[in-house]
């Protein structure tokens, strides 16, 4: 029976259209394997540093960082799988060089973690939007430890269900893709087409929701900045009119103070805009190629590079959600260079 193989989350078309010798060129597989091997220590170190920072620093033990920890854990596990993926990519025997059980485990773990990581990124975007725009820092609402932990559990359940659904329905098995030279999920052709298409649509929806949430956060910040500027301007005009003849020096000082505050707000706006642009840009670069690959299936080298681009998100996440955060940066410095901390 014709079959479709999802390696990582790449696509192999009907085996009836491929000969046993049909395989992605070795030099392409070697490039991808080399990149994954090079990224492994970076991803492991970065994600481990995020986890350790939250464990040792009380000021990082916030409700939102429950999601950041979950993201770091899933990305750490994904990075652990990189060498095992590379072993399959570099194989020239047409079979996985290690035990089949290792290949099966790697396929299930990577597919689950990639889905979990994407959904966690969406959850982080939602919580940040809710906290910033709804001002819930002073009261409970949905932003509570129990509810966030429950959200993490739901994310894992959803991710696992997405991966095992073909197995439960008897429509797929984990195995080694001879075309991609990767461990993946093999499903029947028609079911596989529907499964891949729906997965690609889901990824596109996740991406669009994240973009929308971050744009809403940015719009809220810009409106808040305008309100503060108008408030300072109005207050200053009132004070200037009332004390024009008697407190000109004090008025001048007040104007300087107002300008400094507005400049500070402008710098904050620029910094937030840069951070959001980086977050959105990286997400687009990492998720969009694979989403397109899912919705427009084909048999070419793009089906190998698109999943690799998606996997690099597990390496850059600690940089975006860790090193760009001022408290994380402070804790990272204390962990990496304790002698420099006074």
TrEMBL record:
Per UniProt, what is the membrane topology? Multi-pass membrane protein
Q: Where in the cell is it found?
A: Cell membrane
Question: Which GO BP terms sit in this record?
Answer: G protein-coupled receptor signaling pathway
Q: Which SUPFAM superfamilies match?
A: Family A G protein-coupled receptor-like
Q: Does the keyword Transmembrane helix apply?
A: yes
Which part of the chain is the G-protein coupled receptors family 1 profile domain?
46-321
Give GO terms: molecular function aspect only. Answer: G protein-coupled receptor activity
Q: Where are the transmembrane segments?
A: 30-56, 63-85, 105-127, 148-170, 190-217, 276-296, 302-323
Keywords attached to this entry = Cell membrane, G-protein coupled receptor, Membrane, Receptor, Transducer, Transmembrane, Transmembrane helix
Kindly give the CDD domains that the UniProt entry links to this protein.
7tm_classA_rhodopsin-like
Subcellular location, principal: membrane
What Pfam family is a match, any one? Answer: 7tm_1
Kindly provide the name given to this protein in its UniProt entry.
G-protein coupled receptors family 1 profile domain-containing protein
Which organism is the protein's source? Answer: Strongylocentrotus purpuratus
């Amino acid at each position: 029976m014709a079959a479709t193989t999802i390696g990582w989350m790449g696509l192999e078309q009907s085996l009836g259209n491929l000969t046993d010798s049909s395989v992605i060129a070795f030099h392409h597989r070697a490039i991808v394997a080399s990149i994954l091997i090079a990224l492994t220590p970076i991803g492991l170190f970065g994600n481990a540093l995020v986890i350790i920072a939250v464990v040792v620093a009380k000021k990082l033990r916030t409700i939102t960082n429950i999601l950041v920890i979950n993201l770091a854990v899933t990305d750490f596990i994904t990075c652990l799988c990189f060498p095992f993926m590379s072993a399959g990519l570099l194989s020239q025997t047409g079979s996985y060089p290690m035990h089949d059980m290792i290949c099966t485990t790697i396929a299930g773990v990577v597919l689950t973690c990639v889905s979990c990581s994407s959904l966690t990124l969406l959850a982080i975007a939602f919580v940040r939007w809710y906290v910033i725009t709804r001002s819930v820092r002073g009261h409970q609402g949905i932003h509570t430890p129990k509810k966030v932990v429950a959200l993490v559990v739901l994310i894992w359940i959803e991710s696992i269900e997405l991966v095992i659904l073909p197995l439960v329905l008897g429509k797929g098995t984990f195995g080694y893709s001879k075309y991609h030279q990767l461990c993946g999920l093999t499903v029947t052709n028609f079911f596989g087409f529907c499964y891949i298409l729906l997965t690609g649509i889901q990824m596109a929806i996740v991406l669009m929701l994240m973009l929308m949430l971050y744009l809403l956060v940015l719009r809220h910040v810009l409106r808040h900045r305008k309100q503060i500027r108008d408030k300072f301007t109005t207050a200053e005009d009132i004070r200037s009119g009332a004390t024009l003849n008697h407190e000109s020096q004090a008025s001048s000082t007040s104007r300087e103070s107002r300008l400094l505050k507005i400049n500070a707000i402008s710098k904050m706006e620029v910094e937030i805009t840069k951070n959001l642009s980086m977050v959105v840009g990286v997400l687009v670069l990492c998720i969009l190629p694979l989403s397109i690959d899912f919705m427009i299936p084909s048999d070419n080298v793009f089906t190998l590079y698109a999943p690799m681009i998606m996997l690099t998100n597990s390496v850059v996440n600690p940089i975006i959600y860790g090193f760009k955060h001022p408290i994380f940066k402070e804790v990272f410095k204390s962990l990496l260079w304790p002698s420099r901390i006074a």
